[in-house]
Amino acid sequence: MSRTHQVNGYNGVSLHVSDIGSENDRSIILLHGWSQCRLAFDRQTKLADQFRIILPDLRGHGQSDKPLDAKCYNSSRPWAEDIHAIIQDLKLRHPLLVGWSMGGWVVMDYLEHFGDAAVAGVGLIGSSITTGQHLPPAAAQVRNDPVTKAMGMYSENLSENLAAVSAFVDACFHQKPDAEIKAKAVGYNMLVPPKVRMASRLRQEDRRAVAERTKKPCWVAWGDHERLAPSDMGEQILKHFPNSKRQTFKQSGHSPFWEEAEKFNLNLASFANVCFANLMEPL
């Protein structure tokens, strides 16, 4: 069963949210990455046989509202309030909150402002708990790579923008998608205005203390062939989350949920089952 919601997020931004599976208490919220949309998780819809899968388009992305004011994106409060609004509006009871790449930053935004009391656990896929100047030194390889730095994605010149998006999408995969899949990804990337991309990505956040006070389990998923998230980012997550474990995907780059979807889904389901079982245990 599939449902669509329009959730009123922070400062009235309308969020498009897909809701798949039976309306039960075993819900997983999957948060896409920078300049992407909920369609990035098409291969996770199979999990709706076991769980309620919640797929939002983050503010500025996909079919959600796209205000151009940088203040709508360059701090943690708007993102955190959006996720809180989704949880409240859909009446989700202790969902598992999973974020890919920038979506992981949104997970951290939520934890910063609301803590982990209302979630079953968290998952971070090729993400980080720091941004900007707070990133581990190895992140310099991303900033020094023209493709992953993707300056053209901030350009209002359509040809320059499209070329940068096409190259960036390629960099997200070790196992390259076929032409149809890539065209779809480029298409939904192009829905995001350049000003939104810039304000969303160029943040300066240090959430190591937030991670350290998070008690719920944390699943860290990483591709062995990462180009956008050096392994030091994953090590930093594991160091600061007290209840964390790492899952490596040996045939994947930045998108293990697509490149090794079957393995990814099995491992995410296993982690989710542990998290939901923990909620049933007496205090």
Descriptive key words:
single chain; alpha/beta; 283 residues; eight-stranded mixed sheet; Rossmann fold
Task: Describe the fold and architecture.
With 283 residues, the chain is of the alpha/beta class. The chain has helices spanning 76-89, 102-114, 140-143, 146-149, 158-171, 179-189, 194-201, 208-212, 231-240, 256-259, 261-280; strands at residues 2-8, 14-20, 27-31, 52-56, 96-100, 121-125, 218-223, 244-249. It has an 8-stranded mixed beta sheet with strand order 1-2-4-3-5-6-7-8, with helices on both faces. Helix 2 (102-114) links the parallel strand 5 and strand 6. Helix 1 packs across helix 2 and helix 5 packs across helix 6. It is globular, with a radius of gyration of 17 Å. The two termini are 34 Å apart.
Brief synopsis:
By secondary structure, this protein is of the alpha/beta class.
Tell me the domain tally: 1
> What's the arrangement of strands in the largest beta sheet?
1-2-4-3-5-6-7-8
Poorly predicted residue ranges? none
CATH topology descriptor: Rossmann fold
Distance between the termini: 34 Å
What's the tally of helices?
11
The overall pLDDT, averaged over residues, is: 95
Write the layout of secondary structure elements.
Elements: E1 2-8, E2 14-20, E3 27-31, E4 52-56, H1 76-89, E5 96-100, H2 102-114, E6 121-125, H3 140-143, H4 146-149, H5 158-171, H6 179-189, H7 194-201, H8 208-212, E7 218-223, H9 231-240, E8 244-249, H10 256-259, H11 261-280
Parallel strand pairs: 3-4, 3-5, 5-6, 6-7, 7-8
Antiparallel strand pairs: 1-2, 2-4
Helix pairs in contact: 1-2, 5-6
